[in-house]
Amino acid sequence: MGERKIELPNRRGLLLMAAAAGATLALPRLTRAAANKAGAQFGGDLSSVRAAIEKQRPEAIRRLQNWIALPSIAAENRNMKEGCQMMMDLLTEAGFQTARMMPTDGQPGVFATLDAGARRTVGMYFMYDVKQFDPSEWSSPPLAAAIVDKAPFGKVMIGRGAINQKGPEATFLAALHALKAAGRKSPVNIVLVAEGEEEIASPHFGQVVHRPEVLAALSKCHEVFMPFASQSPQGSVEIALGAKGAVEVELVASTEKWGRGAKDDIHSSYKAELDSAVWRMVKALSTLVSEDGNDPAIDGWFEHVKPLTERQKQIIADKVAHTNEADIKKLLGVQHWVRDLSYRDALERLASQPTVNIEGMYAGYTGPGGKTILPSKATAKLDMRLVPDQTAAEAEAKLKAHLAKRGYGDIEVKVTGGYDPTQTDEHSALIKASTAVYLQEGLQVSLSPRLAGSWPGCIFTGAPVNLPAGHFGTGHGSRAHAPDEYYVIESSNPKVQGMADATLAYVKHLYALSVV
Amino acid sequence: MGERKIELPNRRGLLLMAAAAGATLALPRLTRAAANKAGAQFGGDLSSVRAAIEKQRPEAIRRLQNWIALPSIAAENRNMKEGCQMMMDLLTEAGFQTARMMPTDGQPGVFATLDAGARRTVGMYFMYDVKQFDPSEWSSPPLAAAIVDKAPFGKVMIGRGAINQKGPEATFLAALHALKAAGRKSPVNIVLVAEGEEEIASPHFGQVVHRPEVLAALSKCHEVFMPFASQSPQGSVEIALGAKGAVEVELVASTEKWGRGAKDDIHSSYKAELDSAVWRMVKALSTLVSEDGNDPAIDGWFEHVKPLTERQKQIIADKVAHTNEADIKKLLGVQHWVRDLSYRDALERLASQPTVNIEGMYAGYTGPGGKTILPSKATAKLDMRLVPDQTAAEAEAKLKAHLAKRGYGDIEVKVTGGYDPTQTDEHSALIKASTAVYLQEGLQVSLSPRLAGSWPGCIFTGAPVNLPAGHFGTGHGSRAHAPDEYYVIESSNPKVQGMADATLAYVKHLYALSVV
Known about the structure:
The structure is a homodimer.
Chain A: E1 6-7, E2 16-17, H1 29-41, H2 47-68, H3 80-93, E3 98-102, E4 109-114, E5 121-127, E6 146-150, E7 154-158, H4 166-181, E8 189-195, H5 205-209, H6 212-218, E9 221-227, E10 237-240, E11 242-243, E12 245-254, H7 255-258, E13 266-267, H8 277-286, H9 310-321, H10 325-332, H11 343-352, E14 355-364, E15 373-374, E16 377-386, H12 392-405, E17 412-419, E18 422-423, H13 429-440, E19 445-448, H14 458-461, E20 469-472, E21 477-478, E22 486-491, H15 499-515
Parallel strand pairs in A: 5-8, 5-9, 9-20, 10-19
Antiparallel strand pairs in A: 1-2, 3-4, 4-8, 6-7, 7-22, 11-18, 12-16, 12-17, 13-15, 14-16, 21-22
Helix pairs in contact in A: 1-13, 2-4, 2-15, 4-15, 9-11, 13-15
């Protein structure tokens, strides 16, 4: 199993531990002392809060289950108004004095404030939408939020949104409920913005954040934080210092726009004398990536791609040194990384490489058996991940130019969402305070230079907000976007926090942020 | 509009006319005389039969409507037993003394005989299955078989199977009913084989035809004929002297078989370090055709492809000379043939070129909006049309070898059906007798060297049956496999036969075949 590694990454003496998969050693004296010292600041004696969490546990679970039972899916325009209302209700019940629906050109967001009369104000980001799902693929109904035994994690809740993002968000709200029940005020004021279009790449979230009253409120904050259960199965808290940007597009090749082939689907025997929209799509798509499908080949795609810094590479090397690659591969259901790379090279790619992925594709007849038609249309759904200093606008323009240059200008490029990459300084108060909490909890912290996934942190780290932003926390869950998405409620691994411990950790987190 | 052309293609003096789109001239004397002479043989005075057809018209229409109301779709395993039973009932009611279900490894066929004590026995081929359909795409419900006005054709029946093939088959059965009602015996004995898997490329039809009792019955026949409403909108009866073969395959690229990428669908952010089954499919497909998607590029695909003969080219040139290309383009919803070919070149391609077509394709998420997954599987449905002397077995082997040679051996190639091309001599009794009937009806006959579509004629033209085979007839319909498939019931164009006239033409056709 893995070893543990202690390092002193910066002159302020903050202790960070890289991922130590399965490590079971006690904290060394120096670390323990530092953590205990910090621990004393994180709310002092929290026994009454802990008792409140225990007492409120059934209602916290029920609250999450009720939330999961109402899936808001922007792509399907499903329960959006209802989900926005529930988001506001959840916030108000947790102690926010204001929670307003913020209309946009798409689905509404929420702007909420909790004024505790505190010295410091923390910005927060929530999402109330979830990814689509097909119940037939689930072992437990995705809206039932049943709690089942799942080795080796313990009791987990299975449901759409369990980890992404309702479980962690509900856990954070449980922390506010517990503080109140224990007769405590929140140690920080909170300015919270929420959206219902995260899963379609946040096309209108700027319209919420850039409203004058929201910008004014955020200007009092020093960071923007989103709750997440980011412990690995082995227990290290994964803190990503950034995230890739994303652009989602739908490409449509049609005989109608092309002006070739038959206007409608036609008997396939005509293929000999008529052009095919599907072959056109296949040929156009084929130009977008390298022969093995692994490198974007869109003209100029790498123009603004920054290589990893030495520090970023070091963080990755540290992670690799203390991670069991076989465990990760098993977790992901993977036998080989692309090009049979070493784990280190694979993780460097994961952090540093932009991607062009086909998330879905369809054309013609897709039912059982065959149907001899020459289809008049083909659709491909792409998602493209971007790294600094690529921008979403640049990616869209380059994709369109690439297609046009090759004579595919008639292929429609419908951008359905997108945003730029985000990056946060590891020396920011957010990262330092969070890390200190996790260490005090006796957990290991695993930094990564950048999440391969995306979240609209750029809306906060970019102009005009310009704040550090991150999403992490204790607890564990997985299978975001996939069937059987889960969130650990009661953990059978002492190194992985269940919902109640994670709730207490958020309490400490608020205290840690109140004193930085 | 087009001109008419008379030619004497063979030493036996049979008069053939090539397509004369919209031609309205009277038959020249020579042709008319020949037709009248022949006409005298085609059943003599048919007024009582004609009266019976008129009287039975409502029940003939109802019979067809009832048949359309029961769609048998092998791809969906829908109503197969019921459809087979209905086929047998329809045959028995029309006068067949025997009609037996013939089990196969797939869906059952039918073997039926009508012994009229006649001198000559005609082989016939029916199909009782139809293509799949999506009712939402139809202007009239596909199973309602409603009769509606459709300019410029007159009253047409709209329904799945209307033209392909229930309409023409029911019209032929109406001819047998009318003969009976007029107190006549069928002038020929009939040996009929039917199948329920024509639309999935007849994977098990050989198991019906090659049964000893069926082969024995067919050995008494001189040809195998299938009813079809093959008049063009302008009225010429299209007789195809052959048909392309077809192979339908489903290609499946999966991370599971490949052993690369993630076993299941996974969050798309992992694309940077994991291989994609969809890109693999796109790249593999891309190798199968030329850059413009119009020529098969499978290794060795053209090895056994025979060029058109001079006679075949002449038939096409004749057709072109008498067809209005603009009308055809309008009918098909087409602005350009591939590579902007002339109509003649396009028709030569249509007759002579094998095709590799993507009839359908799907991978990953295909619903509304996006879903950021890296799919573990991609499926493409291909149909490939073959020309002499390609064979279905050869095509399958070459496709597999082509993929394997390029490292795509893990992509599954599931052959769902297929058969060889078929070709029939234009000097055969079947073609001669049929042509004589149509000329006697005052119609024009348009030969084509080969249908671009496919039908399992090879089962009859190939060993061990080795008979001429063809499917044609009077009447008109179109949109086979497409929404709003139709069949003309009452024609508003005197040059295009409605159902009643077509019924009488089948009566004459039987008489014509009885005396060759």
